[in-house]
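Q: What changes when tetrahydrodeoxyuridine is included in the input?
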Amino acid sequence: MSKRDDALIAAAISAMPHAYAPYSKFHVGAAICDEHGQIHRGVNVENAAYPQGACAEAGAIAAMVMAGGRNITAVAVAGGGDLLCTPCGGCRQRLREFGGPEMPIIICGPDGERARYSLAELLPHSFGPDNLDQ
Ligand code: THU
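A: The predicted holo structure follows.
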């Protein structure tokens, strides 16, 4: 495991307590590394009007874009429970906007890495910016 991955995993786990999840009580932290080597964090932010809640990955992407990052080199997502906290379908597509098929997605629990996938494994045959670039 690389130094970058260690930092990314620690960043995702450290974000978890900042989640605003009064309804599900499921705290998620996400961390993404951009092309400058900068790490951006996000948490899930729920809402009394349930569908308006936002995933942790969406917050991390917004932070990256605000800071000038446009390419994701790796992602870590940290959640509790016994099952793997893999990104939801919508977030797989959100991540696709800023990363290619090889982008590593590291799935973590509160104690560290549990699994890792490429974007292509989680979102095969994806539709991305290249599809519109002709
Ligand atoms: N959630 C995330 O933030 N990211 C994921 O990858 C999976 C799910 C959040 C959304 C909601 O606030 C809570 O987890 C339960 O679904």
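Observations recorded in class: Residues 17 and 27 are 7 Å apart (CA to CA).
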